[in-house]
Amino acid sequence: MILLSFDTEEFDVPREHxxxxxxxxxxxxxxxxxxxxxxxxxxNGVKATFFCTGNFAEHAPEVMQRIMEExxxxxxxxxxxxxxxxxxxxxxKQIVERVTGRTVYGYRQxxxxxxxxxxxERVGYRYNSSLNPAFIPGRYMHLTAPRTWFMKGGVMxxxxxxxxxxxxxxxxxxxxxxxxxxYHWLVRRTVKHDGYFVTYFHPWEFFDLKDHPEFxxxxxxxxxxxxxxxxxxxxxxxxxKKEHDFITFNEFVTSR
Length: 256
Description:
By secondary structure, the chain is α/β, with parallel strands linked by helices. It contains ten helices and ten strands.
């Protein structure tokens, strides 16, 4: 089983590098990227889960509608991606449910920062996917955290997939920078070991970042971005479709 997901947020990466960017400009980038993602998913006939910020949901209702109409799951990803708050668990659920008219079952914290497990359960989420159990100095230091799904109270925790032995992260940056053949091999090994695979990307990765030096994006982020990343996503999906089904996160929870 393949759990493919997208952190569908306003583009704010330039702020991490001292560049101011407006919400309007950030939304433009992410809307274009999300539509490119949806095109690839539609062409391949697979489903995914879109973790959406309140900002994105409110400023891109047409895209939200397309996500639902094409059979994907909508989950929550905070309110303002740049400034997470303790109230986001509840407020983001209220916003996304109002925009979509659907019950939201899952949450992922911006940048996979720590969350309040008690609040996640109190608000009514069925699952939380806010853990990258990798060793990435300065970002994620989770060598002792579980690699695969586990329960905390009544909420299923669904970590992003890392390789079984050295916990090499198989998230978006890996597909940007590893040779595709090596990335595919690592993914196949992980699926075989765990029985399923969880990964995530962002809409702005599918925007042509290399055409915008004013964003001051580091090479490892803009490497193979835009149309190249569209092709890499397409190749990954086609490789996995040969042997595995794509399901949403909520379907995975229901199947346990």
